[in-house]
Amino acid sequence: MSPVFCLRRGLLAAATLALTACASLRPSQPVPLVGYQPESFDASAFSRHYAAQPARTCEAARRALLSQGYVVTAALPDQVTARKYFQPDVEHHVQLEFRVVCAPEIDGGASVAFASGLKDQYVMRKAKDSASVGVGGIGSLSLPIEGGMDALVKVSSETVTDGGLYERFFELLGVYLARAAEPAPAPEAEAKE
Q1: Phi-psi category of residue 35: left, alpha or beta, with phi > 0 → left and psi -120 to 50 → alpha
Q2: What are the residue boundaries of the structural domains of the chain, listed by start?
Q3: Exposure string (b/e) for 94-108, b if CB count within 10 Å is 16 or more?
């Protein structure tokens, strides 16, 4: 027998064995939730009432976040979103996104600010590449190689539940609310005559 025929036969047997192994895999069982805490729906940690219009409350929230080094990604009269980045060590990266929604109260002169933080964690991993080698008469062979480029890979995303963080934010919001003016309304287009 020729060496090319033996090699083809060996590759066919390896492919058949690999397909058989994949077919025998059972679907994985659902992974139990680790560290899950049932919702208590206690709004006291995530909201505060203020004696100010929603636009003024959200302006104070924007200023409070800016004063702590957050980058404001969206600022509307009734909502503010800001982000801050941390790098606890060379291999880890943390991103904290804060969202504040300001809603009017029934009496019209007050508002409630709802805040929530989202923490995303990333780790540095080497990017994997592959190289293919084509050999006439046999086919091509693809081999994984260790890449030289690093990439951030998200490993977790969770809502921040630390009540102390929200308490400090709402206190700072109150400080800026005492000084914040009502934002100027957007200029209206002049009516055409």
Answers
A1: left
A2: 44-179
A3: ebbbbbbbbeeeeee
Q: What topology is assigned to 44-179 in CATH?
A: Alpha-D-Glucose-1,6-Bisphosphate; Chain A, domain 4 (3.30.530)
User: pLDDT, tens digit, for every residue of 33-62?
Assistant: 566 666 666 657 799 999 999 999 999 999
Highest-confidence range of 24-28, 55-59, 135-139, 151-155, by mean pLDDT?
A: 55-59
Quick one: what percent of the chain has pLDDT higher than 70?
59
